[in-house]
Amino acid sequence: xxxxxxxxxxxxxxxxxxxxxxxxxxxxxxxxxxxxxxxxxxxxxxxxxxxxxxxxxxxxxxxxxxxxxxxxxxxxxxxxxxxxxxxxxxxxxxxxxxxxxxxxxxxxxxxxxxxxxxxxxxxxxxxxxxxxxxxxxxxxxxxxxxxxxxxxxxxxxxxxxxxxxxxxxxxxxxxxxxxxxxxxxxxxxxxxxxxxxxxxxxxxxxxxxxxxxxxxxxxxxx
Length: 222
Hints:
Strand order of the largest sheet: 6-5-2-7-8-9
Low-confidence stretches: none
Radius of gyration: 17 Å
């Protein structure tokens, strides 16, 4: 994905925002920690990185080590989450994220992330971004993206029909989850363009939200 999208206007009653790769650039931390994990398990780091974006850690491990008992994945994931929460070096906002969140004050929106509460709090704080009032985290769901549960819970928490929600996502797993939830999906960044979102932006500087006064929003893309 290299081209700027043609100007597009979407209508929504709520926005559901992923965190990593969408609001926060945490790629440096994710690369450090998951490549160390790959080395410990004798896996190719490049192949591991193709899997881990957008999913909860234990779900990624289940894909990468299909024969390993889930209790081992859960224990390993707990250790990984502690490492990731403690390591915020290089964590910055995606360009335009702070302006987008500021424009959403008083409008229905939620954070829907595969991170847990400590990790999402640490990364949003490190990037200097405010936490939305409504947050769907790893603790909120029984199934990781690409399952749509998180997005459907976000819509339910906001009292908005899924069809009236617009999802912002960067990963294949997240884009699939948004589509499965019956929502319009805006892809953010170069990864997103590979997974067929409804529209794609380079970063959030290409997004502007306008309240219409009837409980809806116009989302200007491009």
